[in-house]
Design goal:
The complex is a heterotrimer of chains A (87), B (417) and C (931). Chain A is built from one helix and six strands. Chain A is mainly beta. Chain A has a single domain, classed as Folate-binding superfamily (Folate-binding fold), CATH 3.30.2270. In chain A, strands 3-4-5-6 form a four-stranded antiparallel β-sheet, with no helix packed on it. In chain A, strands 1-2 form a two-stranded antiparallel ribbon. Chain A is globular. Chain B is of the alpha+beta class. Chain B has two domains: 225 residues, FAD/NAD(P)-binding domain; 149 residues, D-Amino Acid Oxidase, subunit A, domain 2 (D-Amino Acid Oxidase, Chain A, domain 2, 2-Layer Sandwich). In chain B, strands 4, 5, 6, 12, 13, 14, 15, 16 and 17 form a nine-stranded mixed β-sheet that branches. In chain B, strands 1, 2, 8, 9, 10, 11, 18 and 19 form an eight-stranded mixed β-sheet that branches. In chain B, helix 2 packs parallel to helix 6, helix 2 crosses helix 9 and helix 3 crosses helix 9. Chain B starts with 6 loop residues before the first helix and ends with a helix. The mean pLDDT of chain B is 96. Chain C has 931 residues and is an alpha+beta fold. Chain C is 21% helix and 29% strand. The chains are: A mainly beta (87), B alpha+beta (417), C alpha+beta (931). Strand 17 of chain B pairs antiparallel with strand 32 of chain C.
C-alpha cells in the first residue's frame, strides 16, 4: 500500500487517491477555433513517461486536486503540491 | 535429429536419451539489414514474424527483444482467450484471433493447450442482465457464439458459485461464450518463435532499441544495443513500452501504462471447469491444467512501469474471488506478478502506421492482448508486407483519436474494461 | 522401522501423547511434535508422491522449505489443504491425507507413470496432444494434477483478520542474529516487532550448538527472550514476513490456533532481514529416495523432537556444518559414515526400493544406511531484500548470492547476508544497524567446496523434487535453447512448485551455467516476488465480504418502506424500493395510480450538490452544456454535463435559489463523480474565484409527490408553497424546519420535490403519505417511476445513453447554437464525428407484432450485402401505464429521421417488429404538468 501526501491532509493511503492525468496537459485556449489536431492531442495523446513524471492527483476524501512528482519505475512519490504552487 | 514434434518423436527420443531435439529457435547475430524488423519478442511480435514468413513469403525478417522471448505481458497474463465483445469491428478482430487459435497447435506443430472450456460473465442485477442481452445479441448478430444464461444456466456451469438470492452478488444470469477458454501463454510465444525461426526469421534477444534512424522523414532502421540495423519497414509490438519508444520516434500515443496484477493459488484437484468473470466484484478466475486457480481483476490505477502492484488491489481481487467461491477460503496464494499494460481511452487496440512513416504499430491492447496474439500478428504482418490496412484492422487506426470515431467497448457493452 | 525416538531430550512433552492418522494409518506422537517429526519417529518413510513421475517421497526438510510432503489435514470437521507436515504442530485427532496421491502415498494408483518417465521429460506436453486437439487429453491430465482437494461443502470458514501497525523496526527472523538486532534496537528505545515463522523463537539455536557471550546458546537464548520482553519487543511466532511492497510496507501472515490467520500490514522506519539461510541438497543418482534428507533438518528432528532418522546414517557434506550433524547423530547412538566432499569423496548414487538402503561413493565403495543426511551448502534467504529492489552479488567464498549493501531499504544481517559464522554475523551488526553493541560468539569456520550438479551426470539426479525436474531436463532445456534463467524456469517448471525453488533454484541455474559456458552470476536469478511462502487467500481478503463488500447505501426512510411492504433492490449503489407488496404486478398498479391520483416517491439519493458564490453562475455556464447564468433566481433548468469528448456524462435539473446559490441535481448514481468533476474544474480553472461547492446529498432527504392530486396532497400535509410555477423553486416549513419545494417533473405529471434535512425525513414522509392516501394515492417504487418517465421519453443516463451519446443524439442541439461561452466538451461537438449522419439517436419504439413489450437489449437489424447488421438497440422497455400499449426507448441509427418507419429487431434469434416514433408517448404538449 503506497502512501501519497495530500497537500491539504498530509500522508494518506493510496486507495484514497484518484489519478487525474499528466500535469501540463493544459486545455487549449480558443474555444471553437482550436485546431482539430490540437484538441485531439489534448483529449488523448500522452507522454506516459518511463521514469520521472509530474501528475495531477485528487485526494478523494477532501477533493483537493494537486500535483505530485513520482517515478513510474521506482514508484517513489514526492509529497503533493497544491495546484497554485507550494504555499 | 528430431525436428517435428509428435508422440512418436517423444517415443524415439525417449529411447535414445533426448539427444535429437533441436533448439526451439536459433540464436543468430543481428545483421545490418533486413526487409522488415519487428521490435518486441512477445506473442504479437513473434506472431507477426511468423505470418510475414508464412503468409507473405517475407523471411528476411528480424525480431528484436530487449529481454528474453515472451518475458513481457505474454508471460504474465491470465491466459484467457475469448471474443465476447460488443462492436462488430471488435468481434471481427477477436473472433479472427479465436479462429486462428483453434487451429494453431496443429499449424505450428506445438501444443498451445487451447482449452475451450467456455466463459461466463455473470450479471448480478436486472440492469446488468439488460446489458448482457445487448452484448449477446451483438455477438450473435456479428456472427460469433453467445448465449444469454439465466440463473439456472450459471448455476449449472458454476455449481460452487455463491450466487443465490441472499448473496451480495446474486447471479441472475450472464453471458456465455462456449468457444472461449484458456491457452498456455508461454507455448504461444515459443510455438510462434519456433515456427518463425524455422522459416528463416532471425530472433535476437537481449537487444534493446536505443534510437530510431530517421532519414527524409521516414523510419529507416534502428540503433540497438547490438548495433545498427536498417529495414524497409519496422513494426513495433511492445505493449506497455509503446510510449517510451514512441518518444524516441518523436510522437505521442493515447496510451497510459499501468500495472495489471495476477496471481495463482497452490494447485488443487479440478474444481472450476470454466472461465468466470464477475463485473460486480471485478474479479475473474479460471483453473489451470496444473490445478492452480488463476486470478485477475482490475488495474492498479497508478501509472507504472514497475511490473508490480500493491496490496489494496490484490486484496480487493482476492476478496471478490472468495465472495464468488467461499470454498476457496481453503486456498493459499502461491505466486503473484504483474505486467505493464498499455491502456487506451476506448479499450480498443491501435493498429496501423504511426505518425513516423515506415513505423507500424500493434499496441493499445490494454488488459486484453493475449487473446489477440494471432490476430495482432496477422494484421501487423499485413501492414508491414503491404503498407496497407487489412479490412479488419482499419477501424483501429491511430487516426480514430483524431476524428473521434472511437471503438469504445466499455461504453458500448456497459462492462468496464 | 529404522528411525527411532530417544527416551530423553527435545521439546516434546512425553507426558502428553497424541495420535493422528496419515492416509488412514494411526501415528503416535507428543505435544511439541510437528506432524513431520511424529511421522519420522514412527518410521513411516513413504509419505507422498512427486508431481509428475509419482515417485515415492519422504520428508526432506524441517520447515517452509520442504518440497515433498503436503497433506490435507482434517481436524474438528474442517479441512486445511496443502499443509506442509514440517510446519504444522501435530494435533490429536487430526486426519491427514497425502496430497495428490490416491488412495494414499504408499499405494498411489498412478505410480506406474514412473516407468514411462523417459517419454515424458520436461515440456513433453508441448510436443504432443495436438491431434485431434487438447480437449481429448486435458481431463486426464487435469485429474492427475493438483495437490489437495477442496471440500466444496466447506463454505463457512471464518474471514481472515487484518491489522495495520506502525513501529520503528521490523526484524524478520528470531534466530540469534535477529534476536540480537531486536535487542540492540529496542534497548536503545526503538519500538520493535520481531517475527519468526517457527513455533518458537531461537532459530538455529534450537538445534545447533553455540557459545555466545560466554554462555551456551540455549542459555543465552533464554536470557535474551527475557530481555526482549523487558524491552517491550513484540514477538510474533508462526508469523511469516511474506512481502515487502512499495513505500516501505512489509506484510506478515500470522498463524493462530483455532482462529483465522491475521494479516499484518506494517510500516516501520526500518526493516532488518535476519531470515538465515536454507540448506541445499546434494546431486547424485536417485537423490530423491525417501530417507535422503537435509542434514540441518535431521539435526532439528534430533535436538527439538528427539528423533534419530536411522541406526546407520551417512552424512554427506560439502561444508563444515555437516561435521556437527555427524557428531550429534553419533552421540545419539547412530552409526555414522561421514562423506566429506571437501576431501574429494562424493556420492555417485543412492540405492533402495521405495526408500534408501545405501549409497555408492566416488571411490566405488558401497555404504549401507537407513538415511542419508545431505548438506550441499546454504542459500541465504534474501527474498525480502530482492523484493524491494535490492541487488545480489555472488560470493564465491561461500558459494551463495548475498545482498549488495545499499541497494535496498531492507538491511540484511546474519546468515541471510552470508555471514555463516555467528561471530562474523554479530560483529557486522553494529555497522548494519548503525548503532549498538552486539554479542560475541566463538568463531566457527565455514569452508565449502563446490558440489553443483554437472553436465552429463549419470543416472537420475533430482534438482526440483516437487516438480520432478532432473539434470537431464535441464540439459534438455539447454539443448532446446531455453537457456536464460527465466526460460529455464518456465520450460522445466523448476522453482514453480509450492516451495518456489527454495532448495532447487540455485543448483538449476548453476547447471545451466555450466552447460552454456556461463558463471553462476552471469546466469543470474529469476525475479523475487511476494509471497515468500503461500499466504491464505482469507488473510488477503480480510473482513471484506457479504455486506461489507462494496456496502450498499441505505435510505433514511428504509424502515418506512419495509413497513409498507416494499421489496428492496440495489440501484446505483443504494438499496431502494423496487415496488411495494410482494407481487411485481404492483409496479403497473403503482404507476397507474400515480397517473390517476398521486404517487409518493423517495428520491433521497438524487444528487444535491450546492454550488455557491459570486462566480458560481459563470462556473456553471462552463460545466453545463446549456446556458445557466440566465436562469432567474427561484427557477430551474434541465441540462446536460458533458465530458471533454462531448459525451453526455450526466443530466439533471439545476435549481437556482438566489443569485449566488445553486443546487446541481444530478443523477443518484453519479453524485461522487459529478462532485469530483466540479471540484477539479473549479480548482484548475477558477482557483481564485468565489465559488464553493458542497455535496448535500446524504444530509438531505427528498420526497417527490407526483400526479394530478399533488397540489391537494401538499395542502393536506400543511405544506404551503404559494403559487409555484413548473420549473420553479420555493420554501415552506415543516414543524419549524426549512423545507425546499422544487417543482420539477420526471413523470410528466404535476410534480413537487420536497427536500428536508434527512433526520426529519420520517416526519415528512408520514405527513405526505397520509395526505396521499386520503387523496386515493400511495407510495411509488422505482420500477413504476421508470415506466412513467419512459412514457414521456425522459432518459436515464447510462441506460438510454451509452458512452458515445452526445446531446444532439438526444435531440438537444439548440443550446449549442445559442450559447456563446465555452463549456466542457464544446470543441468535441464540432468535430466530424459529432455530426456523422449515421449516428445512433434516441427514438421511441412501439411494437407492431402484438407480442408484448420489446426485450431490452434487442437490436434493430437490417440486411446489408447478405449479412445482418445491427442498427442500434432497445435501451428501456415497459408495458404502458397511461399509454395503452407497450413503450420503449432506444438508440437507433438516424432514429430522429425515421419516425414512422417500421424496423425488424433481433433478440436471441427471435425477430420482432416495431415502429420508430418520437420519444414521447404521452401528452407531448405538457398539459398534465398543470393538471
Amino acid at each position: 500500500m503506497q502512501i501519497f501526501s495530500c497537500p491539504f491532509c498530509g500522508p494518506r493511503p493510496e486507495p484514497e487517491f484518484h489519478f487525474g492525468g499528466e500535469a501540463g496537459n493544459d486545455r487549449p485556449v480558443g474555444g471553437a477555433l482550436v485546431p482539430e489536431g490540437e484538441w485531439a492531442a489534448y483529449l488523448h495523446l500522452r507522454h506516459n513517461p518511463k521514469g520521472s513524471t509530474r501528475e495531477i492527483w485528487m485526494h478523494r476524501t477532501c477533493l483537493e486536486v494537486f500535483v505530485m512528482e513520482r517515478d513510474t519505475v521506482t514508484m517513489q512519490a514526492a509529497p503533493g503540491v497544491a495546484l497554485g504552487g507550494p504555499t | 535429429m528430431t525436428r517435428r514434434y509428435s508422440a512418436l518423436a517423444l517415443l524415439k527420443e525417449g529411447l535414445t536419451g533426448q539427444k535429437g531435439w533441436q533448439p526451439a529457435w536459433d540464436d543468430r547475430p543481428l545483421r545490418p539489414r533486413y526487409d522488415i524488423v519487428i521490435i518486441g519478442g512477445g506473442g504479437h511480435g513473434l506472431a507477426t514474424a511468423y505470418y510475414l514468413a508464412r503468409t507473405h513469403g517475407i523471411t528476411n525478417v528480424a525480431v528484436i527483444e530487449k529481454g528474453w522471448l515472451g518475458g513481457g505481458n505474454t508471460g504474465r497474463n491470465t491466459t484467457v482467450v475469448r471474443s465476447n465483445y460488443f462492436f462488430p469491428e471488435s468481434v471481427r478482430l477477436y473472433d479472427l484471433s479465436l479462429k486462428l487459435y483453434e487451429k494453431l497447435s496443429i499449424e505450428l506443430n506445438y501444443n498451445i493447450m487451447l482449452s475451450q472450456r467456455g466463459m461466463v460473465s455473470i450479471a448480478h442485477t436486472p440492469s446488468e442482465m439488460e446489458m448482457s442481452a445487448r452484448v449477446v445479441n451483438a455477438m450473435q448478430i456479428n456472427g460469433t457464439d453467445a448465449e444469454l444464461l439465466d440463473a439456472d444456466g450459471v448455476r449449472k456451469r458454476l455449481p460452487i458459485h455463491h450466487g443465490g438470492p441472499d448473496a451480495r452478488y446474486p447471479a441472475l444470469g450472464g453471458i456465455w461464450q462456449g468457444r472461449a477458454g484458456t491457452a498456455r501463454h508461454d507455448a504461444v510465444a515459443w510455438g510462434y518463435a519456433r515456427a518463425a525461426s524455422r522459416l528463416g526469421v532471425d530472433i535476437i534477444q537481449q537487444c534493446e532499441v536505443e534510437d530510431f534512424i530517421i532519414e527524409g522523414g521516414r523510419c529507416r532502421g534502428l540503433c540497438t544495443s547490438r548495433g545498427e540495423v536498417r529495414a524497409d519497414r519496422v513494426g513495433m509490438a511492445v505493449a506497455g513500452h509503446s510510449s517510451a519508444l514512441a518518444a524516441k520516434a518523436g510522437f505521442r500515443l493515447p496510451v497510459t501504462s499501468y500495472a495489471l496484477q495476477a496471481c495463482v493459488s497452490e494447485p488443487v484437484k479440478p474444481i472450476l471447469d470454466t472461465v468466470v468473470l464477475s463485473p460486480g466484484t471485478g474479479t475473474y478466475a479460471s483453473q489451470s491444467d496444473k490445478g492452480e486457480i488463476v486470478i485477475g481483476g482490475a488495474l492498479d490505477r497508478v501509472p507504472s512501469y514497475g511490473q508490480r502492484g500493491n496490496l489494496p488491489v490484490l486484496e480487493t481481487v482476492v476478496a471478490g474471488l472468495l465472495e464468488m467461491f467461499p470454498a476457496f477460503r481453503q486456498l493459499t496464494l502461491m505466486r503473484q506478478w504483474a505486467g505493464i499494460v498499455d491502456v487506451v481511452p476506448d479499450s480498443s487496440p491501435i493498429l496501423g502506421e504511426s505518425p513516423l512513416p515506415g513505423l507500424f504499430l500493434d499496441c493499445g491492447w490494454g488488459t486484453g492482448g493475449f487473446k489477440a496474439i494471432p490476430a495482432g500478428g496477422t494484421l501487423l504482418a499485413h501492414l508491414l508486407a503491404t503498407g496497407q490496412h487489412h479490412d479488419i484492422s482499419r477501424p483501429f487506426d491511430l487516426d480514430r483519436f483524431h476524428t473521434g470515431r472511437l471503438v469504445d467497448e466499455a461504453a458500448g457493452s456497459g462492462i468496464a474494461h | 522401522m529404522s528411525a527411532y525416538r530417544l527416551d530423553e531430550g527435545g521439546e516434546i512433552d512425553r507426558a502428553r501423547p497424541l495420535s493422528f492418522t496419515y492416509d488412514g494409518r494411526p501415528v503416535q506422537g507428543f505435544v511439541g511434535d510437528s506432524y513431520a517429526s511424529a511421522l519420522m519417529a514412527s518410521g513411516d518413510m513413504v509419505l507422498g508422491r512427486s508431481f509428475k513421475y509419482r515417485r515415492p517421497r519422504g520428508i526432506f526438510g524441517a520447515g517452509v522449505e520442504e518440497p515433498n510432503i503436503h497433506a490435507d489435514i482434517r481436524l474438528n470437521g474442517r479441512v486445511h489443504l496443502n499443509q506442509r507436515v514440517t510446519t504444522e504442530p501435530a494435533q490429536d485427532g487430526a486426519m491427514l491425507r497425502a496430497c495428490g496421491a490416491a488412495p494414499g502415498a504408499r499405494t498411489d494408483r498412478t505410480r506406474f507413470v514412473d516407468l514411462f518417465a523417459r517419454f515424458i521429460p520436461s515440456g513433453f506436453y508441448y510436443k504432443t496432444f495436438m491431434r485431434p486437439n487438447w480437449h481429448l487429453f486435458e481431463p486426464s491430465i487435469r485429474a492427475m494434477a493438483g495437490l489437495g482437494r477442496i471440500d466444496a461443502s466447506q463454505t463457512d470458514d471464518m474471514p481472515g483478520e487484518q491489522r495495520n501497525h506502525h513501529c520503528d523496526a521490523v526484524v524478520v527472523g528470531a534466530g540469534p542474529v535477529g534476536i540480537a538486532a531486536a535487542l540492540m534496537l529496542a534497548e536503545a528505545g526503538d519500538s520493535v516487532l520481531l517475527c519468526d515463522d517457527a513455533t518458537r523463537p531461537g532459530g538455529s539455536l534450537l538445534s545447533r550448538a553455540a557459545r555466545i557471550d560466554g554462555m551456551d546458546g540455549g542459555e543465552w537464548l533464554a536470557l535474551a527472550l527475557i530481555r526482549l520482553q523487558a524491552a517491550g519487543v513484540r514477538l510474533l511466532t508462526r508469523t511469516t514476513a511474506f512481502g515487502v511492497y512499495d513505500h516501505g510496507l512489509i506484510a506478515l501472515n500470522q498463524r493462530r490456533d483455532g482462529q483465522p490467520d491475521l494479516l499484518w500490514r506494517v510500516r516501520p522506519r526500518r526493516i532488518v532481514l535476519a531470515a538465515g539461510a536454507i540448506e541445499r541438497p546434494l546431486p547424485f543418482d536417485r537423490n530423491d529416495l525417501p530417507g535422503v534428507l537435509s542434514a540441518q533438518a535431521a539435526l532439528i528432528y534430533l535436538r527439538r523432537h528427539a528423533v534419530v532418522p536411522g541406526r546407520r546414517l551417512c552424512v554427506a557434506t560439502n561444508n563444515d556444518s555437516g561435521e556437527e550433524v555427524a557428531r550429534a547423530m553419533q552421540a545419539a547412538g547412530a552409526e555414522v559414515a561421514l562423506i566429506d566432499y571437501r576431501k574429494g569423496t562424493t556420492i555417485i548414487g543412492a540405492r533402495g526400493r521405495g526408500r534408501v538402503t545405501g549409497v555408492t561413493v566416488s571411490s566405488g565403495q558401497r555404504i549401507g544406511c537407513d538415511a542419508v543426511l545431505v548438506s550441499g551448502g546454504f542459500t541465504p534467504t534474501i527474498h525480502l531484500h530482492a523484493q524491494s529492489g535490492g541487488k545480489l552479488d555472488w560470493d564465491a567464498g561461500i558459494l551463495a548470492f548475498v545482498p549488495r549493501p545499499g541497494t535496498s531499504a531492507v538491511v540484511t544481517v546474519g546468515g541471510a547476508a552470508g555471514h555463516f559464522s555467528l561471530a562474523e554475523a554479530f560483529a557486522a551488526l553494529p555497522e548494519a544497524l548503525a548503532m549498538g553493541k552486539a554479542p560475541q560468539a566463538e568463531p566457527q569456520p565455514y569452508r565449502v567446496t563446490e558440489a553443483w550438479p554437472k553436465p552429463g551426470m549419470k543416472g537420475r539426479v533430482w534438482i526440483d523434487y516437487q516438480h520432478d525436474v532432473t539434470t537431464k531436463d535441464i540439459e534438455l532445456a539447454r539443448r532446446e535453447n531455453f537457456t536464460s534463467v527465466e526460460h529455464l524456469k518456465r520450460y522445466t517448471t523448476l522453482g514453480m512448485a509450492t516451495d518456489q525453488g527454495k532448495t532447487s533454484n540455485l543448483q538449476g541455474l548453476a547447471l545451466m551455467g555450466a552447460l552454456s559456458g556461463r558463471a553462476i552470476p552471469e546466469v543470474g536469478t529469476t525475479t523475487y516476488r511476494p509471497p515468500f511462502t503461500p499466504v491464505p487467500l482469507a488473510s488477503l481478503a480480510g473482513p471484506r465480504g457479504a455486506t461489507r463488500m462494496n456496502p450498499v447505501r441505505r435510505l433514511a426512510l428504509e424502515a418506512r418502506h419495509r413497513a409498507a411492504g416494499a421489496v428492496l433492490g440495489e440501484y446505483g449503489g443504494w438499496l431502494r424500493p423496487v415496488h411495494y407488496g410482494p407481487d411485481d404486478a404492483a409496479i403497473l398498479a403503482e404507476a397507474r395510480r400515480a397517473r390517476a391520483t398521486v404517487g409518493v416517491f423517495d428520491a433521497s439519493p438524487l444528487g444535491k450538490i450546492e454550488v455557491m458564490g459570486r462566480d458560481a453562475a459563470e462556473f456553471l455556464d462552463f460545466v453545463y452544456y446549456n446556458t445557466m447564468s440566465t436562469l432567474a433566481p427561484g427557477r430551474c433548468r434541465y441540462g446536460f454535463m458533458l465530458t471533454e469528448g462531448g459525451i453526455v456524462m450526466d443530466d439533471g435539473v439545476l435549481v437556482r435559489l438566489d443569485d449566488g446559490r445553486f443546487i446541481v441535481s444530478c443523477s443518484s448514481s453519479h453524485v461522487a463523480s459529478v462532485h469530483a468533476m466540479l471540484e477539479e474544474w473549479r480548482q484548475d480553472r477558477y482557483p481564485d474565484r468565489q465559488i464553493w461547492i458542497h455535496d448535500a446529498t446524504a444530509e438531505t432527504a427528498t420526497v417527490t409527490v407526483t400526479g394530478p392530486r399533488a397540489l391537494s396532497v401538499l395542502a393536506r400535509a400543511g405544506i404551503e408553497t404559494g403559487d409555484l410555477a413548473h420549473m420553479a423553486t420555493g420554501w415552506a416549513t415543516l414543524e419549524g424546519e426549512e423545507l425546499r419545494v422544487t417543482r420539477v417533473s420526471f413523470t410528466g405529471d404535476r410534480s413537487y420535490e420536497l427536500s428536508i434535512r434527512q433526520d426529519l425525513a420520517p416526519s415528512l414522509w408520514d405527513r405526505v403519505i397520509a395526505a396521499a392516501k386520503a387523496e386515493g394515492g400511495g407510495p411509488l417504487g422505482i420500477e413504476a417511476l421508470m415506466i412513467l418517465r419512459a412514457e414521456k421519453g425522459f432518459v436515464v443516463i447510462g441506460k438510454d445513453t451509452d458512452g458515445m451519446t452526445r446531446p444532439m443524439d438526444l435531440g438537444s442541439d439548440a443550446p449549442l447554437r445559442r450559447k456563446a461561452a465555452d463549456f466542457l466538451g464544446r470543441r468535441s461537438l464540432t468535430l466530424p464525428e459529432a455530426s456523422r449522419p449515421d449516428r445512433n439517436q434516441l427514438v421511441g419504439l412501439v411494437p407492431t407484432d402484438g407480442k408484448g413489450a420489446l426485450p431490452t437489449g434487442a437490436h434493430g437489424v437490417e440486411m446489408r450485402g447478405g449479412a445482418r447488421r445491427s442498427i442500434g438497440y432497445v435501451t428501456s422497455s415497459y408495458p404502458g401505464a397511461a399509454v395503452p400499449h407497450p413503450v420503449a426507448l432506444g438508440l437507433i441509427e438516424r432514429g430522429a429521421q425515421r419516425h414512422g418507419e417500421e424496423i425488424t429487431l433481433y433478440h436471441l434469434g427471435v425477430p420482432r417488429r416495431a415502429r420508430l416514433v418520437a420519444p414521447c408517448f404521452l401528452d407531448p404538449n405538457g398539459d398534465r404538468l398543470d393538471a
